[in-house]
Amino acid sequence: VQLVESGGGLVQPGGSLRLSCVASGFSFSSYNMYWYRQAPGKERAAVATISTLGSSTNYANSVKGRFTISRDNAKSTVYLQMNSLEPEDTAVYYCSAPVGGGYWGQGTQVTVST
């Protein structure tokens, strides 16, 4: 199982980023997928989740209305569109798949700052 995130970077408050996570080594379309984030000095926290066909999504209250999770099962990829970014969104973002004991990517850094 491998999960590879990309798309992070430095952005000004109010800006946007789109994160991608390419999965391999398991039947991607059979699993819900998750985005988490871990800010400096804080525990890793769930940000968004999406069902196998993409018909159901859930978000942390702090990102509702600003972030959108989506997936492309043909490309084994899950996305996180992040709009209206705030400094409090600064964190390492991880995708996760509940395969076996759970797998994580290496993370991608998102920094929101002037």
Structure explained in plain terms:
The strands form two sheets. Strands 2, 4, 5, 6, 9, 10 and 11 form a seven-stranded mixed sheet that branches. This protein has strands at residues 2-6, 9-11, 17-24, 33-38, 45-50, 57-59, 67-72, 77-82, 91-97, 103-104, 108-112. It has 114 residues and is mainly beta. The model has no long low-confidence stretch (mean pLDDT 96). The protein is globular, with a radius of gyration of 13 Å. A hairpin with a 5-residue loop joins β9 and β10 (103-104).
Q: In what range is the share of β-strand residues?
A: over 45%
Stretches where pLDDT is under 50 for at least 5 consecutive residues are none
Please report the total strand number as a whole number: 11
Radius of gyration: 13 Å
Average predicted local confidence, pLDDT: 96
Contiguous helical run count: 0
Helix content: under 10%
How would you classify the helix and strand content by structural class?
mainly beta
Give the distance, in angstroms, between the N- and C-terminal Cα atoms. Answer: 37 Å
The general outline is globular
Order of helices and strands: EEEEEEEEEEE
